């Protein structure tokens, strides 16, 4: 049974993330979404809120959603995964992803990384960008994030 890990902060999950996850589900028997608390980034949502937002969108998929801290290769090994899934939206993502892949390969040469691209609609979609737009006009992000995420962002930015 081939298992992959799709790690990230997912603050919040976007339709681009879900598109990549859906593609990964066609390739692997099981995909584990590893949600990193990533407190250094100052996330808008708690790790548990992010897990809940993801889980409600993948109920019928072969997906588990788990929090993880530490090195992603250690998380993958602990969960019997042999592949890491990374999303590439644009050429600008490649340099960082290339460096991270090389480091992960050095840390554990038995865990491979594969890159998946979202559909063209989501090439420019990022969690950071969704938060910026939602801060000023949460109604305008509904085609880029799941409905539960749009509602959660609206609640977070209700002060406007």
Description:
With about 160 residues, this protein is of the alpha/beta class. It has a single domain (about 5-120), classed as HUPs (Rossmann fold). The protein has six helices and five strands, in the order E-H-E-H-E-H-E-H-E-H-H. It has helices at about 15-25, 45-55, 70-80, 90-105, 125-135, 145-155, and strands spanning about 5-10, 30-35, 65, 85, 110-115. The chain has a five-stranded parallel sheet. Strand 4 (about 85), helix 4 and strand 5 (about 110-115) form a beta-alpha-beta unit. The chain is globular. The termini are far apart. The mean pLDDT is about 95. Pathway: Cofactor biosynthesis; coenzyme A biosynthesis; CoA from (R)-pantothenate: step 4/5. One of its GO terms (molecular function) is pantetheine-phosphate adenylyltransferase activity. This is Phosphopantetheine adenylyltransferase.
- What's the architecture in CATH terms? 3-Layer(aba) Sandwich
| C-alpha-based Rg, rounded | 15 Å
* Overall average pLDDT: 93
User: In CATH, what is the class?
Assistant: Alpha Beta
Contiguous runs where pLDDT drops below 50 for at least 5 residues? none
| Terminal Cα span | 48 Å
Name the beta content range.
15-25%
Strand arrangement across the biggest beta sheet: 3-2-1-4-5
Largest beta-sheet characterization: 5 strands, parallel
The number of distinct helices, counting runs of at least 4 residues, comes to: 6
Share of helix among residues? 40-55%
Element pattern in H and E: EHEHEHEHEHH
DSSP, total strands: 5
Overall body shape: globular
């Amino acid at each position: 049974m081939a298992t992959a890990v799709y790690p990230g902060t997912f603050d919040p999950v976007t339709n681009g993330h879900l598109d990549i996850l859906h593609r990964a589900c066609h390739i692997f028997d099981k995909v584990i979404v590893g949600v990193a608390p990533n407190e250094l980034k100052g996330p808008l949502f708690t790790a548990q809120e992010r897990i809940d937002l993801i889980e409600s969108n993948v109920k019928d998929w072969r997906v588990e959603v788990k929090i993880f801290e530490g090195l992603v290769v250690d998380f993958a090994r602990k969960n019997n995964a042999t592949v890491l899934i990374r999303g590439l939206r644009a050429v600008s993502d490649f340099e960082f992803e290339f460096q991270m892949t090389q480091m992960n390969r050095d840390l554990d040469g038995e865990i491979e990384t594969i890159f998946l691209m979202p559909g063209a609609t989501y090439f420019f979609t990022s969690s950071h960008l969704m938060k910026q737009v939602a801060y000023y006009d949460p109604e305008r992000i509904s085609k880029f994030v799941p409905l539960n995420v749009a509602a959660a962002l609206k609640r977070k930015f209700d002060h406007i």
